[in-house]
Amino acid sequence: MNKKHQRQVSSLLSRLRGASPSGFAIALHIRYAAPRYLLQSYAIEWIDLYARRGLLLHDPTVHWGFANVGTIRWSALQPLDTHDVMKLAAEYGKHFGACVALEEGGSRTIASFTHPDRELTDEEIAACETDVHELHRLTQNMQRFSPDFHKTLKKMSIYLTQN
C-alpha cells in the first residue's frame, strides 16, 4: 500500500469511526466465508464475547449481508434476531445500527455501524455506504497492510484481523 492509499484509507476509516460512536465492523473482500481484512472499532469486551460465543453464526446483520446488497437499519432486522444477538449488542452500547453490503470485483464486503442512542439518519447511512464502497475499491488488489499502517489502525483504536 503506497502512502497515498494509506492516507485515503485512514481518512475513510476516521470518518466511519466518527459516524459510529459505539463502533463498527467491516469485513472486506469476503471470498467463500472469510474476509481478507476484518476491521473493528468495537470495545474489546464485545469483540471477545462475540468470538467466544460464536455469535457470527447467528448474527442477523451477517446473514442479511451475505444475501443482499445495499443498506438496512438494524431495527428492520429485529424479526430475524432469533438468537438475541442484537439484544446482547445493546447491552454493550450498540442500541442502533445500520448495515452496508456490496459485491464488486468478485468479492463481497459487509459492514455494520452502530450508535448508542439513536437511529442513524438516511444521510449518515448513505455516507457510510459511499465510504465503504471507496474502502472496498482502494483495498481490492492489496494483499497486506504495511506494518506502519497497522500502527495507524491501532492508534485509531481499530482492530485488524488479517487473513
| Secondary structure tally, helices | 7
Rg, rounded, reads 15 Å
Main beta sheet strand tally, sense and closure: 6 strands, antiparallel
Question: Which sequence of strands runs across the widest sheet?
Answer: 3-4-5-1-2-6
Structural class: alpha+beta
Element string (H = helix, E = strand): HEEHHEHHEEHHE
Low-confidence stretches: none
Assign an overall shape.
globular
- Arithmetic mean pLDDT: 89
Span from first to last CA? Answer: 16 Å
The portion of residues forming beta strands comes to 25-35%
Question: Could you tell me the number of beta strands?
Answer: 6
Percent range for helical residues? Answer: 40-55%
Describe this protein with a few key phrases:
163 residues, single chain, alpha+beta, six-stranded antiparallel beta sheet, 7 helices
Briefly, what is this?
The chain has helices at residues 3-19, 44-52, 60-67, 74-77, 85-91, 122-138, 147-155; strands at residues 24-31, 34-40, 70-73, 96-104, 107-115, 159-162.
